[in-house]
Structure formats: C-alpha cells, structure tokens
Amino acid sequence: QVQLVESGGGLVQPGGSLRLSCLGSGFTFKNYAMTWHRQATGKERELVASITPTSGTIHYADSVKGRFTISRDNAKNMVYLQMSSLKPEDSAVYYCKAVNFLSPRNSYWGQGTQVTVSS
Predict the structure, then answer these.
(1) 58 Cβ partners below 8 Å, 6+ apart?
(2) Is the pLDDT of residue 102 over 90?
(3) Is residue 55 scored above 90 in pLDDT?
(4) Are 70 and 60 in contact (CB under 8 A)?
(5) pLDDT tens across 74-95, in order?
(6) Among 15-19, 32-36, 95-99, 104-108, which stretch is predicted with the lowest mean pLDDT?
(7) Does residue 10 contact residue 17 with C-beta atoms inside 8 Å?
(8) What DSSP character marks residue 27?
(9) 97 strand-pairing partners
(10) Which residues, in sequence order, are CB contacts of 30 under 8 Å at separation 6+?
(11) Between vectors from CA 37 to CA 31 and to CA 38, what angle results, nearest 5°?
C-alpha cells in the first residue's frame, strides 16, 4: 500500500538545524511532485516547500526562504527538508505530501514528524 514516512524531527535550540526525510513507497515516486507542509498548534496547515518530479521547479513559503532547502532523490524515493537558522515559530508537525504531477487529485500524506524549536 502507499506509504509516506517522515523522520528527523525533534527538539532543537533556536538557530539550530534539522534535516527531515520522507520515504515514499507503494507508488511511482518519480511521477509525483513532493511538498512539505507544517501545522502548528491551533493554526492551519501551511505549505512550506515544494519540488517538481525532476527537481526543475522549487518553491518556498516566504517565511522559510533562505533558511530551508527542499531536495529529492528519486532513486531512493526520498524527499528532504534541510532546515537551518530555526526559530521558535518554526515549531510544528511537519508533513510530506506526494501529488501526482498529471493528476493532482491523486495525492498522499505522511503521518507527520514533530519539530520543536526551544531553548
């Protein structure tokens, strides 16, 4: 069955770095755009970053530009989110999502990984 499994979350001090990973299985990974979203307590889920199937187009939310980097390895069915200069307001559950590039209604979510930025 389709699975997206995130990992790499945890507790980090302000100014620190974390690398999130998301492993996809059960679908043709290279045909899907991949996105990272986050949801803080009491807030709506928001898009953080996106990357097209061949990494040709990448977008970031304004709040993370210059600090976060999304990348993917289609050979390993992996997508990554390198986060640096972390701020307390980056604390949230981070989710990866796979979106079929030709049929965007066909999408899958991971279960999420908690990121907490605190001293």
Answers:
(1) 49, 50, 51, 52, 70
(2) no
(3) no
(4) yes
(5) 999 999 999 999 999 999 999 9
(6) 104-108
(7) no
(8) S
(9) 35, 109
(10) 53, 54, 74
(11) 160
**Pairing label, strands 113-117, 10-12:** parallel
Instruction: Quote the radius of gyration of the chain (alpha carbons, Å).
Output: 14
Q: In sequence order, what are the beta bridge partners of 98?
A: 34, 108
The token pair that represents 8 in the structure block: 């790499």
Say yes or no to pLDDT of 56 above 90.
Answer: no
Q: How far apart are CA 91 and CA 72, in angstroms?
A: 23
Q: Classify 96 as helix, strand or coil.
A: strand
- Cβ contacts of residue 45 below 8 Å, gap of 6+? 37, 38, 39, 95
Q: For tokens 């069955």, name the residue.
A: 1
Angle (nearest 5°) at CA 114 between 111 and 118: 170
